[in-house]
Design a protein that fits this description.
The chain is α+β, with helices and mostly antiparallel strands. It contains nine helices and 14 strands. The protein has a six-stranded mixed beta sheet, sandwiched between helices. A four-stranded antiparallel beta sheet has the order 2-1-5-6, with helices on one face. Strand 1 and strand 2 form a beta hairpin. Helix 4 crosses helix 5, helix 6 crosses helix 7 and helix 6 packs antiparallel against helix 8.
Length: 310
């Protein structure tokens, strides 16, 4: 390693695990085709992340301090939870009944409330003749410097030289030569922790169960901060948290499976009680308000007024 070059203690190998739905180093014809087409096999369509940001990675590796420094694979694209994880929720509720899955549903306009998925099926036993469930999926965001240099190394066919790409970027931007990306668990709790309560309230009013699909490591962290009481098997529930994780070897199609880990059911009242007592909601909502106020102030919006001390 050249003098002065530093490597982040959590990053031991190539940061990217999956690209366009397959292991980054897969040589299968399906993986090559997905890369050439910039294709996402989980939505069976063009990769939205690549179209928007020019990055097509699905997951990264990271070893978090709160996880005893254990290196794990983290899904960093919501579409990575499409497929088996979302279908699990549909099958859990509808069983063998055919159901239609609809993405990105605007549930209300004022205040604006959107749902990642709604699944429905005709049912004479359901209110209005239609049985529905709502599904929220939650991946995780990156923080810090990101893995852009590693992606460029991948695209240029030199993933084994990924560290040098970080050094080149550091030199061009005049900053320290480090690999400093991380996993933004705080942002997950800010969004997921409060959204489950808000959306759960609305869905309970309209008698629609809510499924929350997440990676198991994310659900574990959420429950450490919002320690809601689960209900016993057979008891009424409002919210089912469903977790999956990278536990199995590569599938026959060359992809890495997300394997079911557990389903935890609770009531809205149990969840809200845990959220309130944890103090998570208040601190995150306050922080979110502060962030928005400062961003608007820095933007020089019309109506900003400096009040001098007198």
């Amino acid at each position: 390693m050249p003098p002065g070059q530093r490597r982040g203690p959590r990053i031991q190998g190539f940061p990217i695990v999956e690209a366009f739905g397959y292991p980054y180093d897969s040589t299968s014809p399906a993986a090559e085709l997905a890369r050439n087409r910039k294709w996402c096999p989980f939505v069976n369509g063009h990769c939205e992340k690549y179209a928007q940001y020019r990055y097509g990675y699905c997951s990264v590796t990271y070893a978090a301090n709160w996880d005893a420094g254990t290196a794990r694979t983290y899904a960093v694209c919501d579409h990575r939870l499409d497929g088996d994880p979302i279908r699990w929720a549909v099958r859990d509720h509808f069983g063998s009944t055919d159901a239609t899955l609809v993405a990105e549903v605007a549930a209300t306009s004022e205040p604006r409330l959107s749902l990642d998925y709604v699944a429905f099926a005709d049912s004479l036993a359901a209110e209005g003749g239609v049985d529905l469930i709502a599904i929220e999926s939650q991946a995780i965001d990156l923080r810090g410097g990101g893995v852009g240099p590693a992606w460029r190394a991948f695209e240029e066919g030199a993933p084994e030289q990924w560290r040098e790409y970080f050094s080149e970027e550091a030199k061009s931007k005049g900053r320290r030569d480090t690999v400093s990306y991380g996993i933004n668990t705080g942002n997950v709790y800010k969004r997921l922790g409060t959204q489950v309560a808000v959306k759960g309230e609305y869905l309970r009013e309209v008698n629609v169960p809510l499924y929350v699909v997440a990676q198991h490591t994310i659900l574990t962290q959420l429950r450490k901060r919002v320690n809601f009481q689960p209900v016993a098997t057979g008891e009424d529930w409002d919210i089912t948290f469903v977790s999956f994780d990278y536990l199995e070897p590569v599938e026959s199609n060359g992809r890495l499976p997300l394997t079911f880990v557990e389903a935890v059911r609770t009531t809205l009242s149990n969840y809200r009680e845990a959220l309130t007592s944890s103090g998570v909601a208040g601190s995150f909502l306050r922080g979110d308000l502060i962030e928005k106020v400062k961003r608007k102030a820095l933007g020089g919006s019309v109506g900003n007024t400096q009040v001098p001390f007198s």
